Amino acid sequence: MARAEASLVINCPIDKMFAYLSDISKGTEWQSGLLEVQQTSSGLVGVGTTLKEVRRLLGRSLETAFTITEYEPDLKLGFKSTTGQIPMSAYYNLEAEAGGTKITVTVEAELTGIFRMTEPLVVSTAKRQMAIDLARLKELLES
Predict the structure, then answer these.
(1) What band does 86 get if pLDDT is binned at 50, 70 and 90?
(2) Dihedral sign, CA of 42, 52, 96, 136?
(3) Among 75, 88, 94, 134, which has the minimal tally of Cβ within 10 Å of its Cβ?
(4) How would residue 95 be classed by pLDDT, with cut points 50, 70 and 90?
(5) Hey, which residues does 54 pair with through a beta bridge?
(6) pLDDT digits (tens, 9 = 90+) for 48-76
(7) What does the angle CA 69 – CA 73 – CA 75 come to, to the nearest 5 degrees?
(8) Which of 113, 90, 87, 92 is CA-nearest to residue 102?
């Protein structure tokens, strides 16, 4: 199982950060590889909410459906893929820090085929992209 993780402290109250992260439509504002995302179930966001996203990875566009598996306000938001070429899970963990909130993003993926052969490249690219995306999130939430 491939795993990538990145953390950053952002000068933003934990409740404001969680509200921003749990607004599915905001993902394209701070995740550069995320081309589009939409909620596919009705109702408020929570455990069981489904969504579809299109993401660019290593020059390829990948469409994946996800279900929210964890939704703990101001603490954790977790997603698990239900379709797509790469079975994966992603988590946003939040912790109050002096002057802000520490966010840790973790992605775990079961790489197969061409992606399995290039696992070190995929993981290093994911870590680099996650750091860039968190810097963008910081910029947006601190402005």
Answers:
(1) confident
(2) negative
(3) 75
(4) very high
(5) 36, 63
(6) 999 999 988 767 888 999 999 999 999 99
(7) 85
(8) 92
